[in-house]
Write a structure and sequence with these properties.
With 345 residues, the protein is α/β, with parallel strands linked by helices. The chain has ten helices and ten strands. The longest helix is centred in the last third of the chain and has 44 residues.
Length: 345
């Protein structure tokens, strides 16, 4: 078996070990001997385990235990993470180291369990059941570090698979290395390639959280600025509406309108009064022309009887009638002695 092929063996061959090999047969012509060029080597019995794995996988797949829609989402920021693995293996150290490096405040509850051998499935189920019943555990990581196929086969147990499927707490399965695949990986909510990868998936790092927080702050600032800008524009619109609908503004507008009306009215009244004054003056002048008082002031006089009847004809008087003559500075009483009719024209 050449070095390029024996790198795939996950165990150290030793004398007396029963194995199943596959490769090619050739003849060494010089000695006339046969030899086998080994390509693969597995411990005897692994073929039965692989067949058992496929049968269980097919059975559980038909029952829907692997459906993606049945998977529970992982919590974004778990406060407490339960870990089911061996207390002495490298897996627990890797998980704790990565979790504390990524987010130191996270709480870790370790429940040591067997992760190899015939009693391992029951012990793992017991650990998972305990953590699932706790109200403070948000996420469970179950698994172990690398090993041979038969060492990892306890994670292909049917009872364990059904127990993981029934848990209400999300489960990350991290069994072996990236090339290893178990029933536990298929039924869990999330499969991690390694225990360290499980810790990476379980919680975001401080760096990513800081970056996300900064992005959120920028988004909040932009949305807040846009909201304030929109609200300010809305308030400006309301202010304009209030300005036009404000009763005080309307009263002021009406007051200005009334002032204009009053000015027009005052102007119209002034023009009307001026026109009437002109009419009165014209009438006054016309009256003055006919005013007997003015004639009296110019030297004329008025003659009237005792009962105030104006004498404007000799036909209105008789001899011995008492008459009164109105002059500018008084009244003269006289008696008619003679009447002379003046026929002019």
């Amino acid at each position: 078996m050449f070095e390029s092929d024996n790198g795939s063996i996950d165990f150290v061959p030793s004398n007396g070990l029963k194995v199943v090999i596959s490769g090619s047969l050739s003849v060494y012509e010089k000695d006339g001997t046969y030899q086998i060029y080994v390509k693969l080597m597995k411990k005897q019995g692994l073929g039965d385990l692989y067949k058992k794995f496929n049968l269980l996988k097919e059975k559980l797949d038909k029952e829907g235990l692997f459906l993606l829609e049945k998977k529970k989402p992982l919590p974004y920021m778990p406060k407490k993470i339960g870990v089911v693995t061996s207390s002495s293996g490298a897996a627990i150290r890797d998980i704790v180291s990565v979790l504390k490096r990524r987010f130191p405040p996270v709480e870790i509850l370790i429940y040591p369990s067997l992760v190899q051998g015939d009693n391992a499935p029951k012990d793992i189920i017991k650990s998972l059941t305990y953590l699932d019943k706790r109200e403070d555990v948000d996420l469970i990581i179950v698994g172990r570090g690398g090993g041979s196929y038969d060492e990892l086969f306890c994670f292909n147990d049917e009872a364990l698979a059904r127990a993981i499927y029934s848990l209400k707490t999300p489960v990350i399965s991290a069994v072996g290395h990236e090339s290893d695949f178990t029933i536990c990986d298929l039924v869990a909510d999330v499969r991690a390639a390694t225990p360290s990868a499980a810790a990476e998936l379980a919680i975001p790092s401080r760096t990513s959280l800081r970056k996300e927080l900064l992005n959120l702050i920028v988004k909040i600032e932009k949305r807040t600025y846009r909201k304030i800008k929109d609200d300010f524009s809305y308030l400006e619109g309301l202010e304009k509406k209030l300005f036009y609908l404000n009763p005080i503004q309307k009263i002021n507008d009406k007051r200005v309108h009334l002032d204009k009306l009053f000015k027009r009215l005052e102007h119209s009244i002034a023009l009307k009064i001026l026109g009437e004054e002109k009419k009165l003056l014209s009438l006054y002048n016309r009256l003055n022309i006919k005013n007997p008082e003015l004639s009296i002031q110019r030297g004329y006089s008025l003659v009237f009887t005792e009962d105030k009847h104006l004498i404007n004809s000799v036909a209105n008087v008789n001899i011995d009638d008492d008459l009164y003559i109105r002059v500018k500075d008084g009244i003269i009483k006289t008696r008619v002695l003679k009447i002379k009719e003046d026929k002019i024209g």
